[in-house]
Amino acid sequence: EPVLVLDAIEKTYNRGKPGAVEVLKGAALSLAPGEVVALVAPSGAGKSTLLHIAGLLDTPDAGTVRIAGHEMTRQSDRRRTAARRAEIGFVYQFHHLLPEFSAVENVALPQLAAGTPKVDALARAQDLLAHVGIGDRADHRPAALSGGEQQRVAFCRALANRPRLLLADEPTGNLDPATAGTVFDMLMALVRDTGLSALIATHNPELAARMDRVVHLDGGRLV
Ligand code: ADP
Ligand code: ADP
């Protein structure tokens, strides 16, 4: 069973008003368990809109979003939020780590919010950080880490609650090219080891080529 199915997704901003922008016009996608797909599109094509709809942060005007077999577009906000917290991890171009907390605390926080006991949450956070090569940085606050290290912490945080699906929007877009390649490899290793599915937006053709499949967002459709 696919982890994510998007079918006939339509989205227009400011519908019926003078500034209406038709962004998605029948976008469709199916992500198999363990599959990692690159989402490639020029700026303004609608990548963020698509990722927000797939991540249950926004609703389409038409079409369906299925997460692990469950249709989500017609669920209540409460159920959509619960599904998002349980099934989906997010990574952005900028890490959005909390500056007052250490790396290991940042990774542990989503687990604490989900009710995991503190000792278990911290142990898993420490494991994840070690997995991406920054176990010795666990007690540093974000400001004391390099850009690549900060993004690695953000990857660990996204995976902390063992989601089935990772949605990433230019996860290495803020790093210099050499660092981006290395940090991207770490993200891929983490994704492969945990067996989760991922939809990763990138402008970088080299990174896109390292994924299982590349889809282009073109004229509001995925091809
Ligand atoms: P991308 O992530 O590919 O750069 P976005 O999904 O952010 O594209 O935006 C797609 C289009 O929709 C752009 O033309 C953008 O200006 C427009 N858009 C995005 N969000 C809104 C919004 N909240 N209201 C109106 N227009 C929006
Ligand atoms: P929280 O547990 O912080 O209340 P949610 O359960 O609402 O967060 O969402 C889970 C994840 O979805 C957040 O960690 C964040 O990465 C992402 N997210 C939530 N709201 C937004 C938003 N408005 N725009 C972009 N990403 C968001």
TrEMBL record:
Query: ABC transporter domain: which residues?
Result: 4-223
Q: Which InterPro entries match?
A: AAA+_ATPase (IPR003593), ABC_transporter-like_ATP-bd (IPR003439), ABC_transporter-like_CS (IPR017871), ABC_transpr_LolD-like (IPR015854), MacB-like_ATP-bd (IPR017911), P-loop_NTPase (IPR027417)
Check the record and name the Pfam families matching this protein: ABC_tran
User: Which top-rank group of organisms is this from?
Assistant: Bacteria
Which key words are in the record? ATP-binding, Lipoprotein, Nucleotide-binding, Transport
GO MF terms here are: ATP binding
Q: Which protein family is named in the record? A: Belongs to the ABC transporter superfamily.
Supply the PANTHER family for this chain: IMPORT ATP-BINDING PROTEIN (PTHR24220), LIPOPROTEIN-RELEASING SYSTEM ATP-BINDING PROTEIN LOLD (PTHR24220:SF689)
According to UniProt, the name of this protein is Lipoprotein-releasing system ATP-binding protein
Q: Which organism is it from?
A: Rhodovulum iodosum
